Structures are given as structure tokens and as C-alpha cells.
Amino acid sequence: MNRVDVHVLHCYEPPEWIEACLQSMEAEPVNVHLCAGIKGKVGLARANAFRLGTADYVAFVDADDEVMPGAFEAALAILDSRPEIVATYCDIQLIDQPDGIGYIKAPWNPLSQLFSPSEVHHLHVMRRAAVMPHLEELERWDGYEEYVLMGLICQFGQQHHIPRQLYRFRQHNSYPRAGAIGGDPMRKAAGKKVTPILY
Description:
Helix content is 33%, strand content 24%. It has helices spanning 15-23, 42-50, 71-81, 110-115, 128-131, 135-138, 145-152, 184-198, and strands spanning 4-10, 30-36, 57-60, 66-67, 85-94, 102-103, 125-127, 158-169.
């Protein structure tokens, strides 16, 4: 039985990108839930998607991105062996760029996560038990929803950085985001929400 419920929200993505995303997970130990996004309500759409399935772990992959072979197995190896870890994330390879070109992260540091919304960006594999209590709060956020959730789950443990480029990120401006990017007032509100946990 697959041990991770992973959802893929789609809204504006071209069909060929969605198909490439899904194909990248065909051999992974995951249950894939393809879900229509809700324009202007990204947090609500993601919260609804997290409620699907019963696996012990949850994750999401953006419909314009892909995963590398072994991405979820690497995460499960950490989560199974280290109960103090609540979630894992990894380094990023840019799609359509030479191997090794992307974003390399540092080992997890709570202050780095607090002050940089993209510090723990992808591939999140999280303990379901840590995510479910926060879905009602997640529904409120149309921007910074990922940042807020990643902070809230740290009430249950530490994040862990896997130093491998296991997530393939498509960097583009081909269409608008389904929700707000954020803006300064929302950034401050999000930071205020997670500061007591991360600081």
C-alpha cells in the first residue's frame, strides 16, 4: 500500500505539463490525487486536497513541476527513522536547464525558515497527523499558504533538508497564479502567525 497521499492542484497549467507531472510519479510509492484548483482560494483548495486519502504522510506537487525518481523514498527513509522530524524538503533542479542548475538549500534552520518564505520550498513530505489540525487555518490564506503551513507544523517537530535535487521546478511566467502572491501586509500577517513557533 502506498504510504503518501500527494495532491496535484491544477488551474491554468497546459495539459502537457500536467501529464508530465503525473508521469514523473508513476513509479513512486504515492497515491496521486489530481484536484481542480479554486481561483482566488488556494489555501482552501489545498486544505480540501489534504483531506483526501488516509496515508500516514501527505505531500503536494505543483502541476507545472515534476519529481525525480526516488524523491519520496528518500523522504520516507528520513521520516521512518527519525520521529522528531515532521517534514522533509529537498534541493531543486530547474526544468529545461542543465543538470545541477537550480536551488541548493542549507541545512534546516528555524530562523532561516521564518525570514525566507522559500527556504523550505518543495518537496514537502509531511506527517499527516501534523497537517490535519491546521487545515481550517490553511483555508484562510490565499497567499503565503505554504509558508504558513510549513511554520505551523513545526509545533510537532523539525523540518529536515535532503541535500539532493529531487524536485524539478518549472520557472516561468506563462500564466497567473491561481491565488495572490501575497504583498507586504499578508507577508507580515503570515510572519506574525508563525513567529511564536519558529523564533
